[in-house]
Amino acid sequence: MKVLIVGATGNVGLRLVPALLTHGHNVVAYVRSAKKLELLLPEPVYRQLSVVEGDATDSAAIKRAILDFQCEAVVNSAGVAAVAPWGKSTLPEIFRAVLEGVQEAGAEQKSPLRVWFLGGLGVLQFPGAMSMISDYVPIFLAHRQNIQLLRSLSPNTVDWSMICPSTMTPESSDFSVPTKSSHARLTAGAGTPPLWQDSWLKHIPLVGKPIVAAMNANRYDTTLEQCADFIAADLETRDSQWIGAPVGIIDASK
Ligand SMILES: NC(=O)c1ccc[n+]([C@@H]2O[C@H](COP(=O)([O-])OP(=O)(O)OC[C@H]3O[C@@H](n4cnc5c(N)ncnc54)[C@H](OP(=O)(O)O)[C@@H]3O)[C@@H](O)[C@H]2O)c1
């Protein structure tokens, strides 16, 4: 596929570029500074990219980039959610702009785009409850309004998925192609975290579910490279099972 990646200079973005190339995609990088991207990537990798400079809050420029390069898919890794509920973040503004650009480009092309967004573990449903994990552990809350926005879309306007990782650590700063990883492929689940460990502690009033969520949280730690590979592999098929879902991931080999 031809994939537009918004935020290619970030932790996730820098792993997505080589992962997408490794999986045979054509990559268009949408960044604020082409020079910065060029300095961060190995020269043979940078040479394989088309690069567009622009701001991720500019929905018209994102739409134009999609249409100019005839992109079939978009991955947004731009913007970061603030940790604390009172923290400030530009992520919601970026998210709205990318979504608007994607929707308008899809309308013009008369076919919805395939899009992966970055979310967080907190927007997944607490298994066995009707609430999100972030109802019990209220951090990285920007992702909540983002998933609500996606859920409010009319059907067949955007073929979205949101990957919902816990902490992702780097395996290396080697961004060459093909990618090398000694880590296992991730196991995924739609809506709730896969392989959740339940506990009777959840029945303790008020503190039970936060305790169980905290006990589980670091089981969902993955690497940036594993997540990038997961998205790049999924984009090999247009009929992904993850369309319309927040997606939990775990390294089941750990
Ligand atoms: N890292 C983790 O462990 C983790 C875990 C769970 C979820 N997430 C989520 O994953 C996403 C990516 O995280 P990350 O660690 O890769 O973040 P990051 O390293 O801080 O990268 C953020 C990217 O956003 C770009 N950006 C910010 N504002 C922009 C704007 N106005 N226009 C264009 N580009 C803009 C930055 O570009 P510049 O280089 O130009 O600044 C950079 O490429 C975030 O939504 C985060 O909340 C991350």
From TrEMBL:
Domain NAD(P)-binding, chain residue ranges per copy: 7-172
UniProt-recorded name of the protein: NAD(P)-binding protein
Recorded GO MF terms: oxidoreductase activity, acting on the CH-NH group of donors, NAD or NADP as acceptor
Pfam family, one: NAD_binding_10
